[in-house]
User: Which sequence fits this backbone?
């Protein structure tokens, strides 16, 4: 545990000493199911190949409203204590579109179910295009009208650390590292810092529950987010334990946004989810936001250490 404390202290010191706070990253409530979009360390998921996808449509009914698509895949290789993954995020807002493909790697420290620490790194590119021809101008003859297509592509990288024990998940990450200390740009996404703590309890035969807090820091904005979720289970009488059926959750952000989460286990290895988001901020669009999620697991022999007490449990 002394060595574990040293790892956490060194990592946090490096990240906080080099970072500057920045502006908006994509915000999707399903990160409570999968944090890999902003913390590459979280792809350590023993026993399975893991596939995840979600899509979000904000401010339904408003032309040009934001639409986000995210897809990820990862596998843990037990013999190397390492996880490898890929991800792709597409974010379109009005006349701008950003694409962010990444390769992800995480190394697991700790060889049992009591606790483990993972260190992660993601590397790829961030590309944003602004298509001025899509502007709907009131006067098409306006000389100041911007009609060009501009695009910029830059290298991108995220880094993270995550600790998991029987009841707790603790993590810290920093995204878009190449934007640290750079001025804001309409083309580039800027550095973000994430810190979170989750308490989980899976001991009951009838339900799992968890509570989480996350702090997101940007250049001039800090948002605190809280989440509470319950997963209902059906006792099977088998040695593998009860089967998880569905979850209900509630999330609230200090930016005055609330999300209702619902997840359903179609099979032991296939889950779907729906999230309804609503903003209560004065001056912002009051239209609702909808989010859909798919999760799929493929049992993998190379990912398994054959020590899990219950392989039916979904990851936290």
Assistant:
């Amino acid at each position: 545990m002394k060595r574990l404390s040293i790892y956490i202290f060194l990592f946090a010191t490096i990240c906080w000493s080099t970072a500057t706070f920045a502006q908006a990253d994509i915000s999707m409530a399903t990160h409570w199911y999968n944090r890999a979009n902003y913390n590459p360390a979280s792809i350590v998921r023993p026993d399975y190949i893991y596939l995840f996808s979600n899509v979000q449509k904000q401010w339904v009914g408003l032309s040009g409203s934001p639409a986000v698509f995210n897809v990820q895949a990862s596998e843990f290789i037990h013999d190397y204590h390492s996880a490898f993954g890929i991800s792709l995020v597409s974010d379109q807002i009005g006349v701008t579109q950003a694409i962010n493909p990444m390769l992800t790697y995480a190394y697991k420290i700790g060889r049992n179910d009591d606790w483990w620490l993972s260190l992660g790194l993601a590397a790829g590119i961030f590309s944003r295009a602004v298509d001025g021809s899509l502007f709907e101008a009131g006067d098409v003859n306006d000389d100041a009208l911007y009609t060009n297509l501009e695009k910029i592509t830059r290298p991108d990288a995220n880094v993270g650390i995550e600790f998991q024990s029987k009841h707790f998940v603790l993590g810290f990450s920093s995204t878009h590292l190449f934007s640290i200390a750079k001025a804001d740009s309409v083309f580039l996404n800027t550095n973000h810092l994430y810190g979170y703590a989750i308490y989980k309890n899976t001991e009951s035969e009838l339900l799992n529950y968890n509570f989480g807090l996350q702090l997101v820091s940007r250049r001039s904005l800090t948002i605190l987010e809280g989440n509470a979720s319950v997963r209902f289970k059906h006792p099977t009488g088998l040695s593998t334990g009860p089967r998880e059926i569905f979850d209900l959750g509630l999330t609230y952000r200090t930016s005055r946004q609330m999300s209702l989460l619902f997840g359903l286990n179609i099979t032991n290895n296939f889950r779907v989810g729906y999230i309804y988001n609503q903003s209560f901020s004065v001056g912002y669009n009051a239209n609702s936001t909808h989010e859909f999620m798919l999760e799929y697991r493929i049992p993998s022999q190379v990912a398994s250490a054959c020590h899990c007490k219950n392989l039916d449990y979904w990851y936290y």
Observations:
- Confidence is low (pLDDT under 50) at residues 1-23.
- Residues 2-18 form the longest helix (17 residues).
- The CA atoms of residues 137 and 144 lie 10 Å apart.
- The first strand starts at residue 48 and ends at 57.
